[in-house]
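just leaving the lab so this will be short. below you get a single protein, a line of residues and a line of whole numbers that encode the local backbone shape. id like you to explain what the token line says about the fold, in plain words if possible. thanks a lot i owe you, the record is right below:

…
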Amino acid sequence: MRGKGHLFVFATIVGFSLALDNGYGTLYLFVFLICLMIWWVKNRLTLLEIGVLLIVSLFFSVHFSANTVIHEDKSYQTEMIIGEVRRITNRQEDFTTFYFKSSCQNELLQVIDTNHHSPDYEVGNHYRLTGVYQEIERPTNPGQFNYRSYLSRQGISWQFQVNESELMALGNNRLTHRLLRLREELLVHMTTTHSEFNAGWIRSLVLGDRHGLDDGVEQIFQNWHLTHLLAISGLHISILIALILFTGLFVFRMTKTSTYMLILLVLVLFPFIAGGAPSVFRASVVSAIVVLLWFSDIHLKVIDYLSLTFILLLIISPNWIYHLGFQFSFLITYSIILSQKVLSSLPHIAYQSIYLTLLSTFIVIPIQIHHFHLFNPLSIVINVVWTWYFSIWVVPLAFILFFISFIMPTLITPLAYLFELTHRYSMTLLSYINETFYFKIVVGEFPAIYMIIFYSVMMLVLIHLEKRQWKKLKISIFLLMMTLGFVLIRPYLNPYGTVTMLDLGQSDALIVELPHRKSVIIYDLGAPYHINQQEVSSAEYNNVIKPFLYQAGIQKIDAVILSHEHIDHVGSVPFLVDDFKVKRFITSPYFEWIDELTSVKKSVSSIETYGMSDTFDINGQVFHVISPERDYHDANDNSLVVLTSINELNWLLTGDLSSVVEEQILNAYTQLPVDILSISHHGSDTSSSAAFLDAIAIDVGLISVGRYNRYQHPSDRVIQDLIARNVTIYRTDQNGAVQFKFHKNRPGTFMPFHP
């Protein structure tokens, strides 16, 4: 099957999707079988070859399933374990985290040690650890990063918090351990030899460690889809090989065979020294296979080399298929290989570079959107310039500075000065571009069926371009743009709406999205204080609120309703305004714009205030203001209480009002039809009185409350009163986020994130 190695890759991906058991595997298998039948009819495949491909799919479906970690229950009592440090994941002054292979249980753990008197952990050494097993927290909100799943894909199902530790034995002399220790020494050497700025970049581009980069650099590169330049991949390996070839053949006058042997040795060792990322192994293994076959009479097509590497790496480490760098590197490399004829037809290297950058950008769009839910269209231009700049200047000079720090240290000063001067200016320019021109399109999820259509059409684009079929090329490009367009307008075609109570601990947030994206409305958006209680924490916003909005494809907010000015109800609003366009802010007349909201008040164009008996309309969604009637001189009692109808159900949103105001509401409204109540003040005993619950006769109660909170919310009295009235209770400390999903013409359903 020479020249058909890519079909084995397709078979592997189908096997992986079947192992996931998420419904997409059947779809991928169906499409794959149709393709196989077409190729068989056109005599491109024999029945034997089809059988081999199906066996490969079956093998990998079992292979991926066998590497799934089963999460077993463990007690939280103190235990003693003995084992070996496999990998240092983070080493700071006040803590160290590492992967630890337990000898007794034969399990891989993530270990956290915050003790200052602990030994300096080294890879390969054996330690006795005393501490507590901790369950790895699972996400409790839609769109939230699944850290438990991430560690599970590394083969880790438990976290271990160290109380005491003791070195048992130094590591053995296994080559991998020695290489990893060498890497640690090289990282230290770069830090002590170069300036802080240069060391950070050399450590990142040569040794795969980004901890030394300036704050915000990774975010800027992510904003402009440039993170591939920070990941060691084929570009870095190609430059490394070029440097070895030049120095070996022209400086040291080595023979071609000796130089190739040296390259092979470096390719074997370099992935471990460079951090062991899948993209490094991919580039190194492909290059090593090419070098090995140079010594033999075996000649394969480049695509077969790449396919063989893909399968070998996944046999060795199946979990690499989840790695974003692994996906990007193979996808981009395949697209480049399939474009060789197009590249060779371009007259100038500049045109080739532009084509490669555009191709690399477009080919990863679906996966990029799938993971990050957004796209920056201006990044296409920046990618062309910055990829060229990194390829011809930054990466080569980083490798040169790395090597001469050992062999010719006297040359470091002039080259280091030149590197720092030029690269500081370029990073300042990129930072300015990011602040001035950054423009994102929040897309949301990229469904599997659209992904299949996109890559099928993308393949047609490349085929028509290679054959110079210009009319067909225009049609295929139009279809490609149509596919992306449908993904963008998908929320506006969706007849379903949602009401989501996010799990923010002791903070509140309720987000309403009406069918066909008619409106996006937020009622309160809280945040906690930092541990020092001196400033508002952005953690909940960055980890929960923003990912939720991004995943839903929400780019602008039609209105934010703020009940009152306490931080647990408004703390995340300044962060929201920085990232999203908010059309309207709605508050009560007694809302106090606290210092934390000063920037918000200055930046918004529309602030509206409403009191009792007022109504306001947000794109057809009508809200009736139930309270406040007057200034109660208490922030909680001044909460803006609103009643609205969603899916023919009446929702009463109450903020933090107390039972005193509840009584006045009952006096003002003899009949208050309510189906769903957001329980006031996290279920505190100061609200949700029995008389109030009797009067409104609700069916569902929503309680936003933090786990194990110091206030002991919700009150036992409130819970018992709700149970006594047959009220269905949803609470974020037990259910995580709670989402009400409804069709515009059919009744909705409450769906807790954790039933």
The chain has a mean pLDDT of 88.
